[in-house]
Amino acid sequence: xxxxxxxxxxxxxxxxxxxxxxxxxxxxxxxxxxxxxxxxxxxxxxxxxxxxxxxxxxxxxxxxxxxxxxxxxxxxxxxxxxxxxxxxxxxxxxxxxxxxxxxx
Length: 104
Description:
Blueprint: H1 4-9, E1 13-15, E2 21-23, H2 30-40, H3 49-55, E3 64-65, E4 68-69, H4 70-80, H5 87-102
């Protein structure tokens, strides 16, 4: 079942040679990142769950989820993801931090 974010981003979707879903702008959608987080963090810290769920419904850092901005949701996710470790965690956290700084 496709989410609203999937439908909105479908026409901008490309797949890199490594099989990673990317957008033509060079940045991945938040819902794609959320899927990867769930694959790489089997027991998500309870404090990060609501923010990860919200990220699953967002496309860009400029979107909103209810009354919350995507920027705040990503920032709160990162604040609650300190127990997530490893190469994937480091790479994805850096990607999310770059989105916060760049404003994509």
